[in-house]
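Hi R.,

Here's the chain you asked about this morning:
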Amino acid sequence: MSVSRSTLAGSRRWVVKIGSALLTDDGKGLARDLIAGWVSQLSELRSRGMEIVLVSSGSVAEGMLRLGMTSRPSELHLLQAAAAVGQMGLVQAYEENFQKHGLHTAQVLLTHDDLSDRKRYLNARSTIRSIIGLGAIPIINENDTVVTDEIRFGDNDTLGALVANLVEADGLIILTDQEGMFDKDPRKHVDARLLSEVQAEDLGLDEMASGEAGGLGRGGGWDGNKGAGGSFSGSLGRVYRCSWWSN
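And here is the predicted structure, written out as tokens:
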């Protein structure tokens, strides 16, 4: 059944995922002005009574800048180190900007085990719900310093979908620097068709995935579509890929 955007506008709890391309200065660490803009918009939603859970990329890009790295590390331990260093700047940037709007933030780092083990899953859900209930904004990311390739989420699109299930969100909003979801990679195919609406259970989503991402993030390709279409069930019925337009 088709779900209109007016229905989404009347919902109560959103998980919003923002990728690296919308948070960084063309690979040169975090873009503070962009973060300030996102925070302003999210704060406006909070003032209207919307509950917001934020899944944010950007830690690796910030860590690379701080550590003087010119390209994304391929070795897992260096990638984890960059994420750990950059996470400090990412959370600080969000906290400073949300404070300007009278809002507190809470850092939540999750691993695959946290969401696959029933006891830990319930504890994580209870904690995040408590944060929301106290009026703060949970800022969620993968706990990169302790995961391995075998047990990582893949990217923050997948993490966002799992978190949306965890908190029983009304909608998952995936912000992208593309116009939206295409039937094929528009960076490679000039005939790629923009899709205004797809069903989350559509088995064809995996076939549309390109398997490639940008230079700073892990999403945008295979995992992006898989995360949006294949990692959630239950109460979540609305997934939107929204393009970013500067004002």
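One quick note: The chain has one domain: 5-243.

Cheers,
M.
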